[in-house]
């Protein structure tokens, strides 16, 4: 009975929060911007929030991109922070009919779709199903709003055909309203590009180490320009943006290797993008660490195909995790040290520490499941949490407990929470007359 009562109470609480969220959305005069897509949406949303912050007050919700996050954004965060000029929300689709409830609640004035790829293969199965799910954000646009669509992606630009709303396009296509040219990055040289639009040409210098970041950059810049942010202000904000953790995040150690940490997600379509970044990098020594490839169509031979490409780029390739044995690496490569097969992230960390060469470039590429970012963090921190799979979705930077053994996480969090409550209580006592 207690369990049933608890479930009823939780359901009622959630319904109340949803009601308050819808009411807060209806009362708000902010411009609401929803961003979705198979890749690039987190960076686009975060960068757009950073740009708009120079033009008005902003609340940006990224990474946590579920209906629960949206409810919290609308009724809790907006109540705490007060009215803002812009709300930027990253909307993720984790299965059929998961995006529409968010889109209907958000009621965006601007809907951005970055790309359609076959992620969450088990749930969607086809590109058409993914596109249909993403389209829900465009369908939910408010009167007078506009959709910003990737002109280079046929599944995205196809969303323009049946919408009654204004459509603005961006991409490499000559027909795009915001046309991107002169894309170049060769680490350590960071990404530079030009955006051509009705206002002229905007030259941009970014902090990103790879060329494929032109897409989220162009998406964010196009929305900002369309909303009236001055071009010079846009360029200045792009140059000062801090990239999100674990999304091709650059970590440079003192006297040791340089890491590019791309360990937030690893769909099959992103593997060659990461390898292309490494191929264009102008450093003398390169290593690639490949962990888990995300949910995909086809067989596990993808690990074999990935190794054939990686070995032509890097001086050494390291496979880690449950699929490390699927590389297809020959015995000659193993004997020569060109390939290493390891099971645990801690083993990779120890191997790299033993063999590191100052200034070498190491790519850490995997889905978030393995938390390969710990390998880079271990160069500046005493990492003690090396459990192979912890089950947490957020990165180690966000979790913040990587210096605490995994089995002590719960007690550590309880003690920290108790300490914060005690501090609040002492502050309240101090205010007593």
From TrEMBL:
Signal peptide: none annotated. InterPro entries: Mur-like_cat_sf (IPR036565), Mur_ligase_C_dom_sf (IPR036615), Mur_ligase_cen (IPR013221), MurCDEF_CellWall_CoF430Synth (IPR051046). GO terms for molecular function: acid-amino acid ligase activity; ATP binding. SUPFAM superfamilies: MurD-like peptide ligases, catalytic domain, MurD-like peptide ligases, peptide-binding domain. Residues 35-223 form the Mur ligase central domain. It comes from Mesorhizobium mediterraneum. It comes from the Bacteria. This is Mur ligase. Coiled coil: none annotated. Pfam families: Mur_ligase_M (PF08245). Keywords: ATP-binding, Ligase, Nucleotide-binding.
């Amino acid at each position: 009975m207690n369990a049933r009562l608890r479930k009823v109470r939780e359901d009622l609480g959630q319904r109340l929060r949803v009601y308050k969220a819808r009411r807060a959305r209806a009362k708000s005069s902010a411009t609401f911007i929803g961003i979705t897509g198979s890749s690039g949406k987190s960076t686009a949303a975060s960068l757009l929030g950073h740009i708009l912050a120079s033009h008005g007050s902003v609340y940006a919700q990224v990474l946590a991109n579920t209906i629960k996050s949206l409810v919290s954004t609308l009724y809790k965060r907006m109540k705490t922070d007060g009215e803002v000029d812009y709300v930027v929300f990253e909307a993720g689709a984790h299965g059929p009919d998961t995006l529409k409830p968010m889109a209907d609640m958000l009621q965006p004035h601007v809907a951005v779709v970055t790309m359609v790829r076959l992620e969450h293969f088990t749930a969607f199965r086809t590109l058409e199903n993914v596109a249909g799910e993403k389209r829900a954000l465009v369908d939910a646009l408010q009167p007078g709003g506009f959709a910003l669509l990737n002109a280079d992606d046929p599944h995205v630009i196809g969303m323009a055909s049946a919408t009654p709303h204004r459509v603005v396009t961006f991409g490499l296509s000559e027909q795009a309203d915001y046309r991107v040219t002169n894309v170049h990055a060769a680490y350590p040289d960071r990404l530079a590009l030009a955006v051509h639009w009705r206002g002229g040409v905007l030259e941009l210098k970014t902090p990103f180490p790879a060329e494929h970041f032109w897409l989220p950059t162009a998406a964010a810049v196009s929305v900002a320009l369309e909303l009236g942010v001055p071009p010079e202000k846009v360029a200045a904000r792009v140059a000062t943006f801090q990239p999100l953790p674990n999304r091709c995040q650059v970590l440079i150690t003192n006297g040791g290797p340089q890491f590019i940490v791309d360990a937030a997600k690893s769909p099959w379509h992103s593997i060659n993008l990461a390898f292309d970044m490494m191929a264009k990098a102008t450093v003398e020594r390169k290593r690639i660490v490949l962990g888990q490839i995300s949910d995909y169509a086809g067989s596990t031979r993808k690990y074999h195909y990935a190794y054939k490409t990686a070995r032509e780029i890097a001086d050494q390739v390291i496979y880690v995790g449950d699929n490390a044995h699927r590389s297809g690496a020959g015995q000659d490569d193993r004997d020569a040290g060109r390939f290493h097969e390891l099971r645990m992230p801690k083993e990779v960390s120890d191997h790299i520490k033993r063999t590191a060469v100052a200034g070498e470039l190491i790519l850490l590429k995997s889905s978030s499941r393995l938390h390969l970012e710990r390998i880079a963090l271990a160069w500046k921190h005493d990492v003690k949490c090396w459990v192979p799979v912890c089950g947490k979705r957020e990165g180690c930077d966000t979790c913040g407990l990587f210096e605490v053994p995994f089995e002590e996480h719960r007690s550590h969090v309880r003690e920290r929470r108790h300490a914060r409550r005690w501090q609040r209580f002492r502050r309240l006592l101090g205010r007593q007359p």
